[in-house]
Amino acid sequence: GASPFDLPDCVFNSLTLEEIVLSLRIQEQIVPESVCLPRLKKLRLVNVRLLLSSVAESLNSGLPELEELDLDRCCLHRFRISSQTVKTLSVTACTYVEMHVSAPNVVSLRLTVAGRVKLDAMPFLSRAWVNISGDGVNRLAPDEHGFLGALSSAQHLELFRFDSLLQVMKQNPATEGPIFGKLKSLYLGEWLVADFYQPVAYFLNQAPNLASLILDTLKACEENAGLLVPRQASLRKEPNYKLKLASASTGLEMLRLRISKGHDAAEFSKMRGLLKEKTKPKEMEVIWF
C-alpha cells in the first residue's frame, strides 16, 4: 500500500501544543509512532486515513485534556473514540466499517452514520446533528435502541433520514424507544413529505416537552450532497398517511415547514392538516421552494 504521510514526530509529541489542525488536499494515511500531547484541547483532521487500531489507541491515551475532536472526510475503518474529557465531537462525511464512541461528557455531537455505530451513554448531551447516510442505517442493527438512547438527553436535535432508522427499528422491536424528556427543538430533514409521518409521530409521543418542530425537504438533499441521489419516491415498504399518536400534543410553540412545490404538494396538504389538528401549534410557518 501507499506509504504513510510523513509528519515530524514533534507534531504529535509536544508538552505545550493546545491545538492541531491537519487538513490534506488528498486523503493520506498517518501513523504517528507515539502520541504525547498533554495540553492539547482541540484536534481537527481532514482527509486523513486512520486505518490502524494502534493509532486510535494512541490518540485515546495520548490526549488527556482533549475537549474538541473534529474528524472530517476521514477514512477510519474500525475506530474507537474513548475520552472522559471531550465535550464537542464531530465525525462528518467519514467512511468506516464500525465506530464505537465512549465519551460520556460530550455536550455537542455531529455525526454522519456511514457504518456500524455504537454510542455509549451521553448524559450531558445538549445538541446533536445526525445524518444517516447511504446504507448506514442497516448497519446500526441490532442496536438502534441503544443508539437512540445515547441521544435521548439532548435538548436540540437535527436528524436527517430518520424515517429509515425507524423502519429498521420496527423490524427489530426489542423494547420501546427511549423518552426524550429534555427535547425542546427538533429539526427533521427527509427526502419526501411521506417520510415525515413516522418520525413526527415518534417524537410527539416520546418527547413530551417538545416546543419547536421544523420539517425540511430541502436541507436533506443539501446535507446528503455527493452521498446520495435525491429520491423521487419514498422507500417505505408501505405508505404511511397517519400520525399515530398516543394523545394530542398541545404544547407545540412553533411548527415550521420547508417543502418543495413539486410532486409533494398534495401529500403536504394532507400532512399540514393532520399536524394542525394534532399539535395545535401557537405559531405556524410554511416556506415553499
TrEMBL record:
A Pfam family annotated for this UniProt entry: LRR_At5g56370
Family annotation (SUPFAM superfamilies): RNI-like (SSF52047)
Ranges in coiled-coil conformation: none
Domain of life (superkingdom): Eukaryota
Annotated ranges, domain F-box/LRR-repeat protein 15/At3g58940/PEG3-like LRR: 6-111
InterPro entries: F-box_SCFL_complex_component, LRR_dom_sf, LRR_FXL15/At3g58940/PEG3-like
Transmembrane feature ranges: none
Name of this protein: F-box/LRR-repeat protein 15/At3g58940/PEG3-like LRR domain-containing protein
